[in-house]
Specification:
Alpha-Beta Plaits; 197 residues; four-stranded antiparallel beta sheet; 53% helix; alpha+beta
């Protein structure tokens, strides 16, 4: 008579198994952030800086070419257009940098405002920060653990709003518990990381 294979019981995982699962998840999220968000933004910034430098060099060459009065008007228009392009490129660089720029208190205030807007009650927030260095940039990584109370829909909208948040945010974990005392609301524990310059 064949014996049935033992079923894995997720409630009885050993500390070692939990550590392996958590370590794997953290590694995957960190790798995904580095490959798909951080590296892409750094490449964009370098490309925009290179284009800005080339346009500034071209502008200097045009200014040197202003010798005859007949060419002056045409050259002035070209210079104005190039300066406008430089301003647009510099604005693009600033927008990209702005996603990584912020203050801890501003981030906490924005999170509180977003939570209030979507009807999510923040019971507590624990923060932890550390400095990290990537590709020559000194960054600050702020870890936030939030205890919240909300219904499913409000929590979904709150978490979804992170993609439009003016910072780089990664969700580390989200645990939701059903509490009979506060139904139809739920208790949730949300762990996120925010990276700023």
């Amino acid at each position: 008579m064949a014996t049935k294979p033992a079923k894995s019981d997720l409630k009885n995982l050993s500390i070692r198994e939990i550590a392996i699962i958590v370590g794997t998840l953290i590694t995957a999220i960190g790798y995904g952030y580095y490959e798909f968000e951080y590296s892409v933004q750094i490449k964009k910034i370098e490309k925009l800086k290179k284009q800005s430098k080339e346009i500034q060099i071209t502008t200097g060459a045009f200014q040197q070419a202003l010798i005859t009065p007949a060419r002056t008007q045409k050259t002035k228009t070209e210079i104005k257009n190039l300066k406008d392009e430089i301003i647009e490129l510099q604005l693009s660089i600033e927008k990209i940098k702005a996603r990584l720029t912020g203050q801890d208190l501003e981030i906490l205030n924005e999170l509180q405002n977003e939570a209030d807007f979507y009807g999510v009650f923040l019971k507590s927030i624990k923060t932890n920060e550390r400095s990290v260095s990537h590709a020559g940039l000194n960054l600050k990584e702020v870890s936030l653990v939030m205890e919240v109370e909300s219904d499913y829909d409000s929590l979904k909208k709150f978490v979804t709003s992170f993609k439009n948040f003016p910072a780089v945010i990664t969700i580390q974990s989200l645990e939701t518990l059903r509490n009979e005392k506060i139904l139809p609301k739920l208790e949730s524990r949300l762990h996120i990381k925010v990276v700023v310059l």
